[in-house]
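Each field is listed here:
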Amino acid sequence: MWRTLIVEDEQPARASMRKLFKKADIPFEIVGEAADGREALAIIREIRPDVVITDIDMPIMDGVKLLMQAREEGFDCRFVMLTAMSEFEYARQALEYGASGYLLKLSLDVNGLRQAMMKVVNELEQREKLRKVDKWFPGGNQAEPTDHPEMNRIIGYIEEHYAEEITLKGLAEYIRMDASYVSDLFKKKTGSTLTHYIQNRRIQAAKMLLAETDKTVSEIGRQVGFENDNYFIKIFKRWCEATPNEYRKGIASD
């Protein structure tokens, strides 16, 4: 069960949300409630929920500011925004900061809640998968999720397909977003361009294979996604300041 915090300034609305969650029969457990963003932030710090369902329009601290503050403090819980039609622009702003989606308060029903929250389930499962990926990342350099679910989907795709041909166009189609927007957002969220991220992923895998197998440099290059031996050696040297053979000899002499 995914631990869930409900943030809503009206108590009847919080009670209604609890009933909807129960009727929807979804894998979420409501572990806390808050009446405003400041109270919610204190609870997030204390219990670290997996999901925050928050109203946008609240006193003291609104839902968007709560999301921004939680992200600034490093919390990667999923956010789903509760909004009225008049607050829709705020909901769009929240999506830019990595909210998983929004729910329209006046028309919310069991089916709508279930559909929205199952999307969150997929994101949470992807987050956990990313946290456990360390097979090819010695020294603790494992991929960590960002605070943006679609960028996490891209990272997850790279983890599974780094040895295959990966293009910006293909990744953009995979998450159904504009290619130029994906490129800019990925760099903003990870601090790396897509090209450098993929190269680094392949080089980390190559380093592991060089250290733990007796496969040739050519075989390893192809296995991690480089079709051309010379290009593999060039990129490896750029990242490691040594050729694959030099790296292997260095590992052997340690």
Summary: The first strand starts at residue 2 and ends at 7. The chain has a mean pLDDT of 87. Residues 2-128 form a domain with the Rossmann fold fold (CATH 3.40.50.2300). The radius of gyration is 22 Å.
